[in-house]
Amino acid sequence: MSEQKTTATERFFRIAIALKGLDGALQVVGALILAFVPASTVSGFSHAVITRDLLGDPSGTLARHLESATENFLHGDTKTFAVAYLLAHGLIKLGLVWALARKIVRAYPVAAVILAAFVVYEIVRAVHTHSIALPFFAALDVVIIVLVLREYRQLKRAA
Fold this sequence. Notes:
It is a single chain. The chain has six helices and no strands. The protein is an all-alpha fold. The chain is elongated.
């Protein structure tokens, strides 16, 4: 029974780190795209989404959030921040996923600490920016932390 549970946990862990790796790769690609996309393209895309009712009512909550995010992105240091954050976050995730996939035992506590720092930062940033996406990403990172620590304990027991 415990053998099946370990296998299921192992499988769930592998799926979770694969998704984290995909997320990291998408963040790196997103950072590179954002670095080269003109502000007018971002503004045009946002305007098209809002005016075509793709988020519901153009004066609704989601549309207001997108409009606010676009304004913040176009004016100020938000674009630079977004590019730097996505690039750093993506590269760190890819490195952690690589180490965890190779079962490098020393990487597990490091991954948990780094992901916990991301969670704290995502929550602080969400409170500051009123982001609706960052709390979701923080919750996913918490789940990954739990899985990393469970896998770490299992590897330590097996050693």
